[in-house]
Amino acid sequence: MRRVPALGAAFFLALGLFAPQSFAAPAGAAAPAAKAGTGTASAPAPRAIPVPKSPDASIGDRPLASASAGKETATKAAPQLPPADAKTAKQFSAAPAAVDCNLSGVIGASGSALVQQLKALPDVTCTYPLFELTGTNAGTVFREAQMVTVADALRVASATYSGDNRAAIGQLVMFLRAGYYVQENNAAAVGSYGAPLQTAIRGALDAFYAAPRSQDVTEANGATLNEAVTLIDSAHENGRYAGVVKRLLAGYSSNWPNAMVTAVQHAGWVIEGGFDTKRADTGFVAALQADPTIATAWAGFVTRNAAQMDGGDVVTSIGMMLGNLVGTDALRAQGRPLVKDLINRYPLVGATGPLTMNLVWFAEKQDKNNCSYYGTCDLPTRLVPLVLTVNHTCNANLRIRAQDMTAQQLADTCTSLVNQDAFFHKVIKDNGAIPGDLNTNLEVVAFDDYYNYSLYAWIMYGIDVDNGGMYEEGNPAKVGNQARFIAHEADWLRPTFQIWNLNHEYTHYLDGRYNMAGDFDAGMTTPTIWWVEGIAEYISYSYRNERYAAAITEAGKQTYKLSQLFDTTYDNADQTRIYNWGYLAVRYMLQSHPQDVDALLTKYRAGDWAGARTLLTSTIGTKYDADFASWLTACAADNCGTLPPTTQAPLCTAGDTRQFDKNCRRDNVAATTGNYSYSFLNLPAGVKQLTITTNGGTGNADLYYGGSSWATTGSYQAKSTNAGNNETLTITNPPAGWVYFSLAAQQGFSGVTVTTQYQ
Question: What is the per-residue pLDDT for 347?
Answer without folding.
Answer: 96
